[in-house]
Amino acid sequence: MAAEVVYLQSRVHVLELVETKVVDDSQPPTRFSNNSRYAKLDVEGAEIMKIVAEIRVGNMATDAILTRHGYHRKNELKNALVQIESKISTTSLKSMLASGAYVFRAVYRNQVVGVAMIVCLNTDFPLLEISGRTSGEAPPFPNTMDLDAVAKYAIAIEKEEEFQNQVYTYLNRHRSYRDIGALWEMAVLGVKEEFKGLNIEKTLAKHALAVVPPGNRVIAVVEPGKEGMYDALGFCHAMMRDGRYQTVKIEPTWAMPGERLDFNMMTYTKRAPIPSRTM
């Protein structure tokens, strides 16, 4: 199955046109076919957002910000949660594409099964003002066509804001470091559930890292249990001054008191290639 997967790279070219080309991953480093196709940003952005939203809803970061009732009924709400994620993230995705983000998609038999998005961070992130909203008593199970009702039922607003602020704080801190070039973020990386374990996610990450210029650094918020894959890619744990890992810590509403999810911040520094010696 993995041998049949085709990898595509997309990024904004000119005049809000998204250029997409096939990646030749038969030989490192990443190379591309000679043929490119072009589509309007609104059209291609919508297609990219569909897979990004599905991947995000399936990951542990989304689990961390769900209410107790939303977490336990996530499968029933999945389609609505994907629509909510797509609606919320469309503007930011278009902004990232317009600012030079690269998107890599894994395609199997005309179906997009995985995605990676890497973006250069040019500005600091403003921290969110915590709304003070809590989930309170569980409302009745919503009509899944009513996205506002699904959001109120399933998403713990304070947890979402808390999670984002921790991430933004670390990203802003790393942008302030002067010992590196530009800072990039692996903003999205994942594959559909049925395609996990086939090395597709790692291959997507390799292609994404290949576009980062030497001397630049990449940062990623890593799900619990995925540290090994990032280690293999050359990432290392971002450290606090006291020697502890930089970690986003969340106690989900559905967890036992004191139980939490820890997302480690990991970094990768792109080294210049070593010149080959000729005899």
Commentary on this structure:
The chain is of the alpha+beta class and 279 residues long. 35% of the residues lie in helices and 26% in strands. It has helices at residues 41-57, 60-64, 68-72, 74-98, 147-154, 157-175, 200-210, 227-233, and strands at 6-12, 17-24, 31-40, 102-108, 111-120, 183-191, 217-222, 236-237, 247-250, 261-269. Strands 1, 2, 3, 4, 5, 6, 7, 8, 9 and 10 form a 10-stranded mixed beta sheet that branches. A hairpin with a 4-residue loop joins strand 1 and strand 2 (17-24). The longest helix has 25 residues, at 74-98. The radius of gyration is 19 Å and the shape is globular. The chain starts with 5 loop residues before the first strand and ends in a 10-residue tail after the last strand. The mean pLDDT is 89.
The biggest sheet, with number of strands, parallel, antiparallel or mixed sense and barrel status, is: 10 strands, mixed
- The whole-angstrom Rg is 19 Å
What is the general shape? Answer: globular
Low-confidence stretches: none
Class by alpha and beta content: alpha+beta
Number of strands: 10
Distance between the termini: 42 Å
The string of secondary-structure elements, in order, is EEEHHHHEEHHEHEHEEE
Beta-strand content estimate: 25-35%
User: How many helix segments?
Assistant: 8
Kindly state the mean pLDDT as a whole number?
89
- Helix fraction, binned, reads 25-40%
